[in-house]
Design brief:
heterodimer; A: alpha/beta; Rossmann fold; 5 helices; 39% helix; globular; B: alpha/beta; six-stranded mixed β-sheet; 6 strands; 38% helix
Chain lengths: 180, 125
């Protein structure tokens, strides 16, 4: 089963994703794919907080912040993976260059690698972010990132069994409501 | 009239092409620097038309209903620009509100209102 969850910040996406992943994992291991690459103390504190929130849920952690394809051999084929978040993965891939350049291929690479990964694992729950509904004119960097994230979202959502958006803690299904 | 809304880059124009049998030649893509041509079957990025209106002191909804022909047969596409932080810039603030007023009027007239999310559609009306 492949599930795609998106929506605005603080709308209940991660908690729902965690619960549904737990439910799906009855037959195999439950994995948390940690995507954040810490850059400072603030990031480390956030990671510690997320770890505390997951404590007791039975998650094993895979720290794959980028280059998912390199971990192909490590994928637990019977496992259920929670990928939180696609947004962070793309950011790691897109802005990882030493020269400060954008990696223009990042969206295609991320979408392709995540799809291949999700075909191998038993269950994958993806969490992404809706960053597409504001009234602003962005610089080229930010707009490339928004366009890239939309591309990843759409490519993976097309292949997912369930696609849903969260708003105020409520779930809005775009497909697969009957599977949940 | 069909009204299609959704966040940026979500696949709204592709949805219109696939579902209403239109091609690029049927679509006018609005630009915030020029007056729109409202005689095409499909008007995309109408939020940019709203920006042009605000910069010229025009209310988008008034201009649209005065100038558009065959409104009943049109397909209107807008980015949803309603969910971010209130813009600091005065024009952008006015733009966001004017586009909202336009969309409310359009959605009243529309036969269907469809929201696109991750390339998937949801019928709002």
């Amino acid at each position: 089963m492949r599930i795609y969850i998106s929506g605005g910040a603080k709308n209940g996406k991660s908690m729902f994703a965690q619960e549904i992943a737990k439910k799906l994992s009855s037959e195999g291991h439950l994995w948390y794919l940690a995507t954040m690459e810490p850059h400072d103390d603030e990031d480390l504190a956030r990671i510690a907080r997320h770890r505390d929130e997951r404590a007791g849920w039975g998650f094993r952690t895979a720290e794959w912040g980028r280059n998912i394809a390199l971990h192909c051999e490590e994928i637990d084929c019977k496992g259920t993976y929670l990928v939180d978040s696609v947004t962070a993965l793309l950011s790691n891939e897109m802005f990882s260059g030493m020269s400060g350049e954008i990696n223009k291929n990042a969206a295609d690479k991320t979408a392709e690698e995540l799809l291949a990964f999700s075909e191998k694992a038993e269950n994958v729950v993806f969490v992404s972010d809706n960053i597409f509904c504001d009234a602003a004119f962005y610089d080229e960097w930010t707009d490339s990132y928004r366009e890239g994230l939309a591309k990843v979202d759409r490519t993976i959502a097309e292949k997912c069994d369930v696609v849903a958006e969260f708003s105020c803690g409520q779930i809005i299904f775009y497909k697969g409501a009957e599977l949940i | 009239m069909e009204l299609i809304i959704g966040g940026a880059f979500q696949g709204k124009t592709e949805y219109a092409k696939e579902n209403f049998g239109i091609g690029n030649e049927d679509i006018f893509v609005c630009n915030k620097d020029f007056a729109p041509e409202l005689d095409k079957k499909c008007i995309a990025h109408i939020e940019r038309f709203s920006f042009w209106c605000v910069e010229h002191g025009i209310e988008p909804a008034e201009y649209f209903f005065e100038h558009a022909k065959n409104i009943g047969d049109m397909i209107i596409i807008s980015d949803d620009i309603s969910c971010g932080v209130v813009p600091i810039d005065k024009t952008e603030r006015a733009w966001r509100e004017a586009n909202g007023r336009l969309l409310i009027k359009l959605s009243k007239e529309a036969e269907h209102v469809t929201r696109i999310f991750c390339g998937l559609s949801q019928r709002l009306k």
